[in-house]
């Protein structure tokens, strides 16, 4: 292609610097559905086969919030202890953190305290943290009820969401509200 320098009707550096980038991480025990939540948000699909995340997985989506296109980077952190060092590096500069547990697995709920401490220890900037109860579609096997999880989240002063990565319930609303909150904090000079 034969293009002359300066042929674009705008300054590329100005355009790039005006983009809004959001970094979000999903943390929680292995098998709670972090990957499936991110995949549902980014691609509107569900993966039926369980493949453990090796270290970290990544999703990207341009999401319009209040007529602003946000470039959302979603880091899916492995819940396995072998990858603690990788996780801890990725907590830095996080603007939103989804602490995910499986409503059919008591241990994953009990470990939320561990995940919150890890986030607070390694996150280098204030992060908007929410608790996500996933797999709410599996009603017959549910062991963590909404009231117990809501009390835990309220005690930690974080918002609580219920989702199903399988059928998408609650995912769109959760991401819209969290991204709106991050954008609002960013426009007021905080992260």
Automatic annotation (TrEMBL):
Gene3D superfamilies: P-loop containing nucleotide triphosphate hydrolases
Entry keyword annotation includes Transferase: no
GO annotation, cellular component aspect: apical plasma membrane; exocytic vesicle; Golgi apparatus; secretory granule
A molecular function GO annotation: GTPase activity
GO biological processes: exocytosis; positive regulation of exocytosis
Xref: InterPro entries: P-loop_NTPase, Rab, Small_GTP-bd, Small_GTPase
SUPFAM superfamilies: P-loop containing nucleoside triphosphate hydrolases
Keywords from the named record: GTP-binding, Nucleotide-binding
Official protein name in the record: Uncharacterized protein
The species this protein was found in: Strongylocentrotus purpuratus (Purple sea urchin)
Lineage: Eukaryota, Metazoa, Echinodermata, Eleutherozoa, Echinozoa
């Amino acid at each position: 292609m034969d293009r002359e320098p300066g042929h674009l009707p705008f300054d590329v550096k100005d355009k790039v610097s005006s983009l809004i980038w959001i970094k979000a991480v999903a943390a929680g025990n292995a098998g709670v559905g972090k990957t499936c939540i991110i995949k549902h948000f980014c691609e509107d699909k569900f993966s039926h086969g369980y493949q453990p995340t090796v270290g970290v997985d990544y999703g990207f989506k341009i999401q319009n919030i209040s007529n602003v296109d946000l470039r959302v980077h979603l880091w899916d952190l492995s819940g396995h202890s072998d990858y603690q060092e990788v996780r801890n590096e990725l907590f830095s500069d996080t603007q939103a953190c989804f602490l995910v547990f499986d409503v059919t697995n008591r241990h994953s709920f009990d470990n939320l305290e561990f995940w919150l401490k890890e986030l607070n220890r390694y996150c280098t900037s204030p992060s908007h943290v929410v608790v996500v109860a996933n797999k709410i579609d599996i009603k017959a096997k549910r062991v963590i009820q909404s009231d117990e999880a809501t009390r835990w989240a309220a005690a930690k002063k974080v918002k609580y969401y219920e989702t199903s990565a399988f059928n998408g319930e609650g995912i769109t609303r959760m991401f819209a509200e969290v991204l709106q909150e991050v954008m609002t904090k960013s426009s007021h000079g905080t992260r």
